[in-house]
Amino acid sequence: MANTRRATSKATNTRKSRVQEELEHDLSNIDFDTAAFDQEGTLPEIPKREGYEQRWVRVQMGGRTDARNLSTRARLGWRPRPADTVPEDYQSMVVQNESMGDIIGTHDAVLMERRVEIHHKAKQVKRQRVRELEKAVKSNIFREHNELGGADTGFTAPRDESKSRVERGVPRVQDDD
């Protein structure tokens, strides 16, 4: 019994030392100072063309083509970025597509762009819609409060404590808005 324990312990130590050696070998072969390693997201941040905004757009989800998301983006002015417009460093991401030609993409996303003027107009329209929705919600809340008797009921009017937060940095694949 004691010999079995020693043999098991020795085999375990041997496996641990091999695993440790492999880990040390792998760590020694990684260049932690490279620019590619510094990218936090899974998608590279390719420099924009002058006069264009760009974003990664999902074209596949769960192994199925997401034509709806792609066509929605196209209706909003987004077009696949042609492969010949990106720096040489990103030519490895060229995807050949029958309908779109040579574009920049991955297995489930494609890099799309639209003119800055269209982008600003779309943002302006979206901001206006959000303001209108917020106004409608606030109006509905106060109307219901007043219909219930307002201040006479002992309930105070709802407070408007809306907050928002903007984060920048990691490019992400865009879903339906």
Rounded Rg: 27 Å
What does the overall shape look like? extended
Strand content bin: 15-25%
The biggest sheet, with number of strands, parallel, antiparallel or mixed sense and barrel status, is: 4 strands, mixed
What key phrases describe this protein's structure?
17% strand; alpha+beta; 177 residues; 4-stranded mixed sheet; 41% helix
What does this structure look like?
With 177 residues, the chain is of the alpha+beta class. The protein has helices at residues 2-28, 35-38, 67-75, 116-147; strands spanning 52-58, 60-61, 64-65, 79-80, 94-97, 101-104, 109-115, 173-174. The longest helix is centred in the last third of the chain and has 32 residues, at 116-147. Helix content is 41%, strand content 17%. The protein has 4 helices and 8 strands, in the order ααβββαββββαβ. The strands form 3 sheets. The chain has a 4-stranded mixed beta sheet with strand order 4-7-1-8. The protein has a two-stranded antiparallel ribbon with strand order 2-3.
Helix and strand arrangement:
Elements: H1 2-28, H2 35-38, E1 52-58, E2 60-61, E3 64-65, H3 67-75, E4 79-80, E5 94-97, E6 101-104, E7 109-115, H4 116-147, E8 173-174
Parallel strand pairs: 1-8
Antiparallel strand pairs: 1-7, 2-3, 4-7, 5-6
